[in-house]
Amino acid sequence: MDIAGDLAAVTQRIAQITGETFTQAPAPVAAASSPSFASMVSDAMNQPSSAPATVPPAQLESLVGTSASAYGVDPALVKAIIANESDFNPKATSRTGAQGLMQLEPGTAAGLGVTDAYDPAQNISGGTRYIKGLLDRFHGDLRLAVAAYNAGPGAVMKYNGVPPYAETQAYVSNVLDSYEKYKSR
After folding, report:
1. Among 86, 87, 116, 165, which is 20 to 30 Å from 172 by CA?
2. How many degrees, rounded to 5, is the angle at CA 166 between CA 161 and CA 167?
3. What HEC string does the chain produce?
4. How far apart, in whole angstroms, are the C-alpha atoms of residue 176 and residue 90?
5. Structure pTM?
6. Which of 20, 85, 105, 167 is flagged as catalytic?
7. How confident is the model at residue 184 (pLDDT cuts 50, 70, 90)?
8. Domains of the chain
9. Which of these, 53, 115, 48, lies nearest to 85 by C-alpha position?
10. Maximum distance among all alpha carbons in the chain?
11. pLDDT the model gives residue 185
């Protein structure tokens, strides 16, 4: 009886029907080991329930580094957002229509000059520029910028902090946890 395989098949079928992208928690990593970002992306791409990514890990690492440097954003933050938004799947599309690695909404993508949100280079550049703008808007407050990336800057301003939405609160926690992990590598 292969429960994990059956569950993966059901999850994939639900994703096909609904158009949602489901992420899977990464396998635990031993504390003494310190895998590279590229190996983590490779592992994520090879999980049975993940849609195959078409961007080689080394290229993804390069795109993140280039955009992070261009906009003055910590590459670890960009990686954390990608991990939590799309699980490194450049073809990911959310139920609300957000697209690509950094899950840019069509209107946001257009405002950032992104003409193809599924193009990894454009998506990472646009998403990095967007998070940089949010960091500037919220005076470097990482929690507020990440909350705004998920819920929108208007919601953060309305609640004068992280909105009381369960999804946004979990997202902020997950991104910040991932950020700490990527910073230590």
Report:
1. 116
2. 95
3. CCHHHHHHHHHHHHHHHHCCCCCCCCCCCCCCCCCCHHHHHHHHHCCCCCCCCCCCHHHHHHHHHHHHHHHCCCHHHHHHHHHHHHCCCCCCECCCCCECCCCECHHHHHHCCCCCCCCHHHHHHHHHHHHHHHHHHCCCCHHHHHHHHHHCHHHHHHHCCCCCCHHHHHHHHHHHHHHHHHHCC
4. 21
5. 0.73
6. 85
7. very high
8. 55-183 (1.10.530.10)
9. 53
10. 53
11. 86
Q: Is there a contact between 116 and 109 (Cβ–Cβ < 8 Å)? A: no
Length, in residues, of the chain: 185
Write down the pLDDT at residue 38.
62
- Whether residue 177 contacts residue 171, with contact meaning beta carbons closer than 8 Å, is answered with no
Contact (Cβ atoms closer than 8 angstroms) between residue 123 and residue 100: yes
Average pLDDT along the chain: 84
- Annotated active-site residue 180? The verdict is no
pLDDT score of 55: 87
Kindly state the tokens that stand for 147. 């909350």
Structure tokens, 115? 């003409």
- pLDDT band for position 33 (cuts 50, 70, 90): low
Rounded-to-integer distance, Cα 92 and Cα 29, Å: 25
Write the pLDDT tens digit of every residue in 145-177. Answer: 999 999 999 999 999 999 999 999 999 999 999
